[in-house]
Amino acid sequence: MPSYPFHTTREDVRIPLPDGTQLAARLWRPVVDEPVPALLEYSGDRLTDRTAAEDARRHPWYVGHGYATLRVDTRGHGNSGGTPGEPGGEQELADGAVVVDWLARGPWSAGRVGLLGVGAAGTTALRLAARVPETVGAVVTACPEGGHRLGGALLAADLHTRLTALVAGAALPPDPRHVGEVWRTRWLERLESLEPPVDSWLAAGDTTVPVSVPTFAVAGWGDPSCSFVLRLLAESPTARALIGPWPHGLPEDALPETLRWWDHWLRGVDTGVAKEPALRSWISTRWTGDDVWPSPDVREIHYGLDGPLRTAGTASDDRYVRVRSPQHTGLNAGAYVLHGRPADQPPDQREEDGRSVCFDSQPLPEPVELLGAPTVRLRLREGGPAPLIAVRLCAVGPDGTSELVTRGVLTAAPDEPDTEVELAACARTVPAGHRLRLALSSVYWPWVWPPAEPTGYALDPSRSTLSLPVRHLAADVGSAPVTFEAPALPEPLDIRLIEPLTARPEHLTVHDIGRHEWRTELSPATDGTRTHPDGLVRDEHTVTAYRVLTGAPLSAQARTDHTVRLERPDIGWDVTVQTRTQLRCDAGHFLSTVQLRALEAGSVVFAREWQHRVPRG
User: Fold this and answer.
1) Which of 404, 384, 386, 406 is nearest to 395 (CA)?
2) Can you tell me the distance from the alpha carbon of 286 to that of 371, in angstroms, rounded to the nearest whole number?
């Protein structure tokens, strides 16, 4: 166990809400006589099993450096009372405000609270800070999640998987070791009250999240949150961001930087964070810093699609280039959310390029360093339904290898000839001798749902432009190097993992040539059986599958099967939750089916199915 300035105590507490509901929480405190600042992590994930391993390292580390920290399960989740509500909704935020007040008024609290959140909880932290800015002094948000649409197109990747996991998490019972014999009554109340938020998720566009207090944002390049993080920087003068070569989550390497942030804003200690670059980012091989964002060292370089970039697809008698892609275009997109596994990364893009219309540059005479969000402005032929425009930017090596740099999609407005597609923010050095490739397609499955009509679109290259955010190669000359201190964290929680004997491939694609069908199956890293130090056994298995026929957009289907089993063998407690979410579409609607079964000792105690029909528009 590393040595820290302060010793740590831990206790499980219950926080009362105005309606009598009590939230389960775990409180870590330093052994000191004077009050200390407090940190809150407020999440729907179960603190006694789902996040126990991360909590046992992160929170004692903060406490060892002089902070009280509180990890709270939201209403109707884990061992908290009540029934689940809309994630990030009004009830969850109202409850969170009560928790912030409880934390600020504790006799061991100095009254200043910092909010910490990862993923969806990172977004909730920002919204909660906007609700009680007089008490919240600072926020650390890691990979905050946005809406369920990408450029106006409904996500297929990740959406139904997250929905399935959300339903399963809300359907799991309290642990009798923590709540006693009332666990079963509370479980059945949860199950009866469950309503999957399908309508709101399918109908909602991109979310707007307020930034009301000093915010430190952490993300990994390739995570969907990067563009949001850069917008946050541009809008808030007190915000700072750190974007590195990490998967989704809060990397341990970033914890010392978050501690400097807390010390500055919650203790009033001059740690130098106010003088740090607004953006510290990893670009291919090194860390860089930009004092402000947008950075004066980044300028737009424009490439016309009929000059610097060229394609062989222009017919001699028509200035328009036709883009009409097969429905399996996008199968090599890689994971929508990167979790650090080999199959998460998009492979060589030459197959995808062959299903797209490509515009290539000449070999670059010198390296090009990209930092920010590229944009593509297209002049489309008028008439016809609103097309889906998928854009990929690739770096093509001298050997022909096509490496994905970034991408974006847009559902264009009908009868609007001029349209602009913003690609995801990126940081990449494209070496000299490589070519830039702009690849356009009319489908990007299974990231987003295909348009109902496979008509594609036509564009005029002479009035279309790629704009790249190019960072000056000498921007770092004379600047102090960007360095980080590695944290000495507590030993990992002693959780024994038994992986399945016949583990499924991380990512498997099957082409049924006779049926003209493409099928893809994904299995997450969470699969396996984990035995916790207190004897709790959590067994989890998930399979996500997609299918589509090459020429039939309405054949697209997505399904996730998710099973979680919780056991305490010493007391004979054995519960299982099985969930399945299926999504498909017709010409005018998205059609979803959500199924839930709950079992106790192998016997079904609850079963229900929900069906939703949501207009595509």
Assistant:
1) 404
2) 13
Average pLDDT, the chain: 93
Tell me how far apart the alpha carbons of residues 527 and 612 are, in angstroms, rounded to a whole number: 29
Say if CB 57 and CB 490 are below 8 A apart: yes
Q: Is 597 exposed, middle or buried (0-12, 13-18, 19+ CB in 10 A)?
A: middle
Whole-model pTM? 0.95
Closest Cα to residue 596, out of 199, 51, 201, 193?
A: 193
Q: In degrees rounded to 5, what are phi and psi of residue 446?
A: -105, 35
CB 390 within 8 Å of CB 440: yes
Kindly report, residue by residue over 223-238, the tens digit of the pLDDT: 999 999 999 999 999 9
Closest CA to 168 of 594, 615, 602, 617: 594
505: left (phi over 0), alpha (psi -120 to 50) or beta: beta
Confidence of residue 390 (pLDDT cuts 50, 70, 90): very high
573 three-state secondary structure? strand
DSSP state of 265: I
Separation between Cα atoms, residue 437 and residue 422, nearest integer Å? 16
**What's CA 250's distance to the chain center, in Å?**
11
Q: What residue type is assigned to position 160 of the chain?
A: H
Longest dimension (CA), the chain: 83
Q: What is d(CA 558, CA 161) in angstroms, rounded to the nearest whole number?
A: 9
